[in-house]
Amino acid sequence: MDKWLSHNNVAKVIALIVSIILWAMVHLDSGTPVAPTPVVNTKVIPNVKIQVVGFDSDNYVLAGLETDKVRLEVRGKRTDITTNFSEYKVKLDLSDIGPGTSSQPLTHELPPGVQLVSMSPSIVKVTIEAKQTKDITVNIVTKGQPAQGMQLGSPVVSGSGIVQVTLPESELAELERVQGIVDINGITEPVKGKSVKLAAYDKHGQEMKNAVIVPSSVDVDIPITKLYKNVPLEVREVGQLPDGLVVSSVESDVKGVAIYGSKEVLESISSYSVSVDLSQFKGTNQTRYTVDLTPPEGSEKIEPSSVTVTVKVEPPGERQINDIPVTLKQDNPQLTATILEPTDKKLSLKLLGAQEILDKLKPEDIKITADLSGLGPGTHMVPVVIALPLHVGLAESDNSRQISVELVENSEPAQAEPEVQPDSNPANDPDAAVPPSENAGGNNSGTNVGG
How would DSSP label each residue in 16-81? Predict the structure, then answer.
């Protein structure tokens, strides 16, 4: 034991231990705390959003930004490095930066006691474009269908209907339209002053999200009425006039009527007819009828509800019309037809009617047709069919109602003679419809007379 204690190294260790014990006793007695050594940590903050500041968004648009997030590496005491990432800020100052592409530095703001180790990236490339404004007319479209039996009118935009669209210069050339959509599905009443939000669309029909539209919405009226159809009014004559009178004119105070109803019913209606009874005349030269109109079966309403028809009559006049061409109707292309009698291939007719009507007649207003169907080669006496304008008749003394026609077999392909060609004048066609405004709905009459 004495030998171990007398060793030099052991004595040094014992002295160090005694010194530490004495130091501790002194400081413990004095109440002075022992400060721990501070611990410094590092931390990576990923995806910190870049905040753009100082940018003139009224006149420019940020068309390109190389990246909108950065990676931060920071260091500091464990108590200072917070996990509240909103306290770590990265900013891009674009004050006084005009159009074009440039590289700009990023700045940072960190919590107190925290230092930046690195920021990646620290510089970003930005592209700025100038904005341009264009005036454009608003287009309003409807979506859906109104209620059954209702008819939609054209949308009406309040004011001028013109808005201003602001876009980057490179995008403005692609602007096609500014459009608002109104849902009219099932509506039964007009839409008044509906606020409609607007959107801009390019030439490919894609919405342009960057567009600034002023105003961004407009007020729109949508007219709507009951479904109706305008059809001509036809006046039909029934009964017979007293002897010694002919009709000079038949006129109604309206040319057409409006019929209200479903689409299916209206599609089946092409005209509306009223009748006047000529036998009611008692020798006067003019009679005015008031005719009540009844809606057609299946329809809801007709406007107007009544019409006034004026019929004028007078004693008949007489006039002879010469040089009326004869048209041949032939169904056998192997035969050639030639009119032998009359030699000039024309007829004259004595006609009766109101003098005013007769004075206006021309030969081309009358159609004379001879039907050669079923006839073989040889000479034939063929009756003619005479189609006269409305309110015109034949004089009883007129007997020129047959023509002589020769049919010859062709040695070569038949060449149609001019008189065989169909009459191109629709006024001469007995089957052609005559506008109600011209003859109040009457049809041409045909007279088939045998020889």
Answer: HHHHHHHHHHHHHHHTPPPPPPP-EEEEEEEEEEEEEES--TTTEEEEEES-SEEEEEEEEETTTS
